[in-house]
Design brief:
nine-stranded mixed beta sheet, Rossmann fold, three-stranded antiparallel beta sheet, 295 residues, 14 strands, alpha/beta
Length: 295
């Protein structure tokens, strides 16, 4: 599609068995929903669905409420992997997700965003219009497994982690809080967890920890920035998660370790891309796009 053409915003269904269906998901052997039906993926017609089977991919995940310095780390991570030719996969939420997305696009790289609502919904189209030029030039693919007119739901926001992680060859956690966080009031299905004072509090698994759990379940190499963030330290220290630390050298994190240990023996990485692409929306987009996307 030429850069000056507009996206038709017509969802394209991609079923398992279609040559465009992600081979990484097909290999998992469990691509079916609760009723045994194959999961259908949706992308917009005219966008670069070849990204679904890119040679090398990395998911960058983290908190919506990450401090500014971690948003900068996320942007630098997206830019680094984008320049190295990896496709950056995110969930499109404000915070770490958008920072990593912008970093990849700023560097002339490519990215996949997995949204938790149908692509025919007003929310999804409003989100994507800000990146229309990147969709039209094949640098960005927006994906969903929700029916086209499905609105945002909290359950789908958490469930998309399976896709974000499943589409990736490795997962990088930039910033996370502790494993369990208070659940929103009014949810009767909330599990109960004891607090230190003996009272009962309604808790849920953090969205970022959920992504880390998905990485463990799917056997994806899991990395986390070795920082002072309490959640990052807990994730790295958890023996069940086997998260490897990304060390810091001065003010910079050594993302080269992720590339060397998780990709060099399994992929012929594409040559590094050059910049020169149009700049994506400014970094304030994370505040401008007020979609209710969960951490």
């Amino acid at each position: 599609m030429a850069a000056d053409e507009r996206i038709p915003w017509k969802p394209l269904a991609i079923e398992q068995g279609d040559h465009r269906y992600p081979s990484r998901l097909a290999k998992e052997g469990k691509p079916r929903g609760k009723r045994g039906r194959s999961r259908t993926l949706y992308a917009w017609e005219g966008t670069n669905v070849d990204l679904l089977n890119a040679e090398a991919t990395v998911a960058i995940v983290g908190s919506r409420s990450a401090p500014p310095e971690f948003l900068e780390y996320a942007r630098k991570a997206g830019a680094y992997f984008g320049r190295c030719g990896l496709v950056v996969v995110t969930g499109g939420a404000r915070g770490v997700d958008l920072a990593a997305l912008h970093g990849a696009l700023e560097a002339g790289g490519r990215a996949i965003v997995v949204l938790p609502m149908g692509l025919g919904s007003t929310e999804a189209i409003r989100f994507a219009r800000r990146y229309e030029r990147y969709l039209a030039t094949g640098k960005l693919l927006v994906l969903s497994e929700q029916p086209p007119l499905e609105r945002w739901r909290a359950r789908a926001a958490m469930a998309r982690n399976r896709l974000v992680v499943g589409l990736a060859d490795a997962v990088l956690v930039v910033h996370t809080g502790l494993k369990h966080v208070p659940r929103e009031p009014g949810n009767r299905r909330a599990p109960r967890a004891a607090r230190g004072d003996g009272e009962q509090a309604s808790m849920r698994l953090s969205g970022t920890w959920n992504a880390a759990e998905q990485a463990r379940r799917l056997g994806r190499p899991l990395w986390a920035l070795d920082s002072d963030a309490e959640g990052n330290r807990a994730l790295i220290a958890d023996p069940e998660m086997t998260a490897r630390p990304v060390s810091r050298s001065g003010d910079e994190f050594e993302f080269e370790a992720v590339l060397a240990e998780s990709f060099s023996d399994r992929h012929r990485l594409p040559s590094r891309s050059s910049s020169g692409e149009p700049e994506p929306p400014g970094r304030d987009t994370a505040r401008q796009v007020e979609l209710p996307l969960a951490e």
